[in-house]
Automatic annotation (TrEMBL):
Residues spanning the signal sequence: none
Cofactor: pyridoxal 5'-phosphate
Organism, as annotated: Carnegiea gigantea
Name listed for the protein in its UniProt record: 1-aminocyclopropane-1-carboxylate synthase
Documented EC number(s): 4.4.1.14
Length: 467
């Protein structure tokens, strides 16, 4: 067998391409929605991309032709860009990224450009971290999506202890805790108190804390995003055990550029990661473009503000559009997605993952929307789905909303007029197949941009699990 000649990783199925998450992608790839050429195709809502501000980036590129080597103004830099690249990264790139990371964190912390290590996206950054911190068979604790309403979805000390003790009993060596803040898939942020308690836990157990803050600038409403770097500075909890993973894939919407960052407070980790980063460097061409763009303070300021505004608007339109057929989402203020609650559509008295996946198949094949079932995020309570909302136009979002609403009407037999009011205006559910409101109309109904609308879905109370 040829397979036996390969490594264990190559022979295994660790990538998870067989999971529901990737099945949905395949369904989209086989029949992609296009408003004109394939209006009945599958709409991609499984991709956490931020495409709402590309007009601003395009405008900047046109105004700054020297930032690219593919222009009359920039071609003089071609040779210097094309030759050997060293793994430290261009000083102007590391400087610009450090300043950008500070800006995203409200300039409440300082980042040392000498600690910025490049990687191929946050994916590469995680690999670098695992390489530097763990050996084969060691483990990291990873909290699964959420925590219950009674404690405001916080990661609790008791759940962390439980997961840690489980690992101890199974004789698994825990090297660290990995958290994502803001959360994917929840779109929520961890508060200072929780971060401090998490740090106390990792400090006490003498394990690493890796914080993935890739969605830092997507927080569009209160409460503010608090970075672990703010806690490290102020509380001084064994900083050598604390590491940040970042990238420009979400905050700027550039996953194709593969700009990932490891920022560690541990000198040895910085040194090792820098050497190992040769496996996933950011191209010099990209470094130059990003250095130039992020050094433009006026642009960065405007982009971050506008991006938050557009994300808030999109989030509000979408959650409101769902709420009129009784679909609620977890209350969130960040990320590029919503965490949609369809537990009521799983009829079984004892909802199972199988029931969730059966519903998900109907959503993919009949509603023709690729969303991601909670089970693909190891969610312990069936019936939750992650729906990405920032990778499409307003019109496509509307088509998706109409499909979801029609599906709910068919599934629940909802025929009674359903009336919602907002201020002086009214929106009336008139006919189960005719409800279609333009985004503009929805905005009119919802009034000025404020996140906590009286009609915002109430937070639900998912179960807890930390593994
Ligand atoms: C929390 C989180 N970390 C890392 C990644 C990977 O990002 P990148 O494209 O920078 O590799 C993603 C992408 O969805 C993500 O959601």
């Amino acid at each position: 067998m040829v397979g036996a000649l390969l490594s264990k990783i190559a022979q295994g199925n660790g990538h998870g391409e067989e999971s529901a998450y990737f099945d949905g992608w395949k369904a989209y790839e086989n029949d992609p929605f296009n408003p004109t050429s394939n209006p009945h195709g599958v709409i991609q809502m499984g991709l956490a991309e931020n495409q709402l501000c590309f007009d601003l980036v395009r405008e900047w590129i046109l105004k700054n032709p020297a930032a690219s080597i593919c222009t009359v103004e920039g071609v003089k830099d071609f040779q210097d860009t094309a030759i050997f690249q060293d793994y430290h990264g261009l000083p102007e790139f590391r400087n610009a990224v450090a300043r950008f990371m500070e800006k995203v964190r409200g300039n409440r912390v300082k980042f040392d450009p000498n600690r910025i290590v490049m990687s191929g996206g946050a994916t590469g950054a995680h690999e670098l971290m695992a390489f530097c911190l763990a050996d084969p068979d060691d483990a990291f604790l990873v909290p699964t999506p959420y925590y219950p309403g009674s404690n405001d979805f916080k990661i609790t000390r008791s759940a962390l202890e439980e997961a840690y003790n489980h690992a101890q009993e199974a004789k698994i060596k825990v090297k660290g805790l990995l958290i994502t803040n803001p959360s994917n898939p929840l779109g929520t942020v961890l508060d200072k108190e929780t971060l401090t308690s998490i740090l106390a836990f990792t400090h006490e157990k003498n394990i690493h804390l890796v914080c993935d803050e890739i969605y830092g600038a997507t927080v569009f409403g209160p409460p503010d995003f608090t970075s672990i770097s703010e806690i490290v500075t102020h509380e001084n909890h064994k900083p050598e055990l604390i590491h940040l993973v970042y990238s420009l894939s979400k905050d700027l919407g550039f996953p194709g550029f593969r700009v990932g960052i490891v920022y560690s407070y541990n000198d040895d980790v910085v040194n090792c990661a820098r050497k190992m980063s040769s496996f996933g460097l950011v191209s010099t061409q990209t470094q130059k473009l990003i250095a130039s763009m992020l050094s433009d303070k006026v642009f960065v300021e405007m982009f971050l503000e506008e991006s938050r505004k557009r994300l808030a608007r999109r989030h509000k339109l979408f959650t409101w559009g769902l709420s009129i057929v009784g679909i609620h989402c977890l209350r969130s203020n960040g990320g590029l997605f919503v965490w949609m609650d369809l537990r009521h559509l799983i009829k079984d008295l004892n909802p199972t993952v199988e029931a969730e996946l059966a519903l998900w198949k109907v959503i993919i094949n009949e509603v023709k929307i690729n969303v991601s079932p909670g089970s693909s995020f190891h969610c312990s309570e069936p019936g939750w789905f992650r729906v990405c909302i920032a990778n499409m136009s307003d019109d496509t979002m509307e088509v998706a909303l109409t499909r979801i609403r029609n599906f709910v009407v068919q599934k629940t037999g909802m025929v009674k007029p359903h009336v919602l009011t907002s201020g002086k205006r009214k929106c009336t559910w008139q006919n189960k197949l005719q409800l279609r409101l333009s985004s503009k109309r929805l905005e009119d109904i919802m009034g000025v941009s404020q996140i906590g609308s009286p009609h915002s879905p109430l937070p639900q109370s998912p179960l807890v699990r930390a593994t």
